[in-house]
Amino acid sequence: MTADRTAPVPLCDIQAQYRGLQDAIDAAVLRVVRSGQAILGPEVSSFEQEAAAYCQAAHAIGCASGTDALLLALHALDIGPGDEVIIPPFTFFATAGTVVRAGATPVFVDVDPHTFNIDPEQIEAKVTARTRAIMPVHLFGQCADMDPIWDVADKHGLYVIEDAAQSFGSEYNGKRCGTLGVISCFSFYPSKNLGTLGDAGMVTTNNAAIARKLAALRVHGSETKYYHKYLGWNARLDAVQAAILRVKLPHVEKWIEGRQAAAARYDALIESSKLSKLLHRPTARDYARHTYNQYVVRVSGGQRDGLMKHLKNENIGCDIYYPLCLHQQECLSNLGHRTGDFPVSEDAARAVLALPMFPEITEAQQKRVIDACAAFARSQQRLAAA
Ligand SMILES: *Cc1c(COP(=O)(O)O)cnc(C)c1O
User: Fold this and answer.
1) CATH class of 252-385
2) Ligand 1 pocket check: which of 90, 92, 202, 296 to mutate, most ligand atoms within 8 Å of Cβ?
């Protein structure tokens, strides 16, 4: 294979799916524009039914973003001032930001060094009389280890809310994301497993009363227009985004398979290039259907930043998810945490690197990525020998 040795490899190629589905997406957008049904309406409710079926959940409620999905979940369960919610510190900011926005207090539990997901063994020690919920994040497309999380939740009467923003289509022991908590929260941000061309999100639940409340909260807390039962806000899913999502949903399985095939190719390329010492491949657990929203390696020997610089010079997209843990964020400093409090998360923040990953990535592109990593490794060996 003669890969173009200089062509840029993007971290994520958002436009690839639009190119493949352009006629259908253009038609769907026009359909909404011409219908004049821009707020909720049939596109949103049809998408909700189709997405609920895919997630094997009884109810799906579309909303404006993954962040609103988390906030809706917390409000629907009346989690607020005085309450504590257990979350990992190694995740996207919204996981903690929404807990604080709801008026509750995030309580961090460190992550497993192999999966980067919340370490279930450490949860119970953080449960207090104020704890209301555990909010595991299924990071990078792999479910957190739910069995021991459900055990702690059952024992102490806590809700489990899934932050499934990165794991649409992922499974835990054959159960799909969307049913692993009392409420499950999804994002359709463009780079997620199912991504649209703007902001969008969704909550799912099997509980009919909670579904009704979520649907009301999304429209200012009203079940009857102008009569406000709850203190809600405007968190509606945009009808144009719903129409685009309806075009894309039937393809999501194929795209997930594309991600899994790409991950297997990276695994093999890292092995055959003898790079396993420099790049620790992602750990996929037996219980997980890993959907590889990201392919994140751990770079050993403190070489992450050097490798990232080298890849960028080679026009290869890569990024750090996440460079600063949530307990170290400036706006959460009032929680009183210090560097050193969650060593596994802090270590991950220093060592992880996301390599280019999208369903359409070619073997030639991946070979270029791994060849560039190998060239970096050789240059470091030469430096060490000199
Ligand atoms: C993307 C993401 C969110 C937020 O989703 P938005 O749609 O961007 O608001 C929340 N949690 C995690 C883990 C995410 O990756």
Assistant:
1) alpha beta
2) 92
Query: For 279-284, what is the mean pLDDT?
Result: 97
Sketch the domain layout of the chain as residue ranges.
16-251, 252-385
Which H or E run includes 293?
A: none
Topology match between the domains 16-251 and 252-385: no
Tell me the DSSP string of 223-286.
EETTEESS---B-PPBHHHHHHHHHHGGGHHHHHHHHHHHHHHHHHHHHHTT-TTTEEPPP--T
201 C-beta closer than 6 A to ligand 1: yes
Topology of domain 16-251 in CATH is Aspartate Aminotransferase; domain 2 (3.40.640)
Determine which residue's CA is closest to atom 14 belonging to ligand 1.
165
User: What are 330-355's pLDDT values in tens digits?
Assistant: 999 999 999 999 999 999 999 999 99
For the Cβ of 142 lying below 6 angstroms from any atom of ligand 1, the answer is no
Average predicted confidence (pLDDT) for the chain = 97
Q: Give per-residue pLDDT as tens, 221-246.
A: 999 999 999 999 999 999 999 999 99
Instruction: Report the nearest atom of ligand 1 relative to the CA of 166.
Output: 15
